[in-house]
C-alpha cells in the first residue's frame, strides 16, 4: 500500500472509531455531518438523509467545473413532499433557481425503508428510475413529469410537450443490483456519481465496501476523488 492510501485508510478508520457520536466531522451545503452520521457508512450501515444530501451536494459542486454536465439535485425530502401535496407544496423549493438551465436533475427518493434514484436528463428529455432492488417506478416517473410540466409553466411560462418525453424504469439487466438489504443508499450515490459524469454504470455489488470508505474520506474533505 502506498503511504497516501495508508494515510487515507487510517483517517477513515479514525472517523468511525475515535471520538463521540456528536462530533462534527464536516460542514457544507447548510448541512452538518456528525460521527454518528458518518458511521452509517460502516459495512452494512443504512445511509441516512444527511449523508445522502451531503453527497448530492458534492456532486452538484463538482458539476460546476468545466467539462461536466450541469447538475441540480433535490434533497431527499422533496419527492415525499411532492407526492403528498402536488406542485403547490414544493413551489418554494426552487425559489431563485431555474432547474431547466441544468443538464441533469437528480431526485434521491426515500421509500420508507429503501433508497432509489430518479434522473431527469433535460438534454435527452428522458426520466429514468434507478432501483437497486429492481422494482419499477413508472408512477414516480409520471409524478416527476407532471411536476416538470407545472414548474415550466409557472417559472418560464413554457408548456412542456409530454409526448416528447421518454419515461423508463431501468431493468435488472441494465443496472447493477444490491445483494443485501443495506446498500441501497450507496447504490443511489454511485448511480448519481456515474450519471453526473456521463459515464456508463459499470460498478458491481463487490465495490460497495470500497465505495463506503471512499465516501467517508470525500465527505470529510468535501472533495470527490
UniProtKB/TrEMBL annotation:
Keywords associated with the record: Hydrolase, Protease, Thiol protease
Keyword Hydrolase: yes
Biological process annotations from GO: protein desumoylation; proteolysis; regulation of macromolecule metabolic process; regulation of primary metabolic process
Gene Ontology CC terms, in alphabetical order: nucleus
Keyword Hydrolase recorded: yes
Entry's Gene Ontology molecular function annotations: deSUMOylase activity
Domain of life: Eukaryota
UniProt-listed InterPro entries: Papain-like_cys_pep_sf (IPR038765), Peptidase_C48_C (IPR003653)
Pfam family, any one: Peptidase_C48
Domain Ubiquitin-like protease family profile: 31-195
Record-stated family: Belongs to the peptidase C48 family.
Protein name, per record: SENP2 protease
Gene designation: Senp2
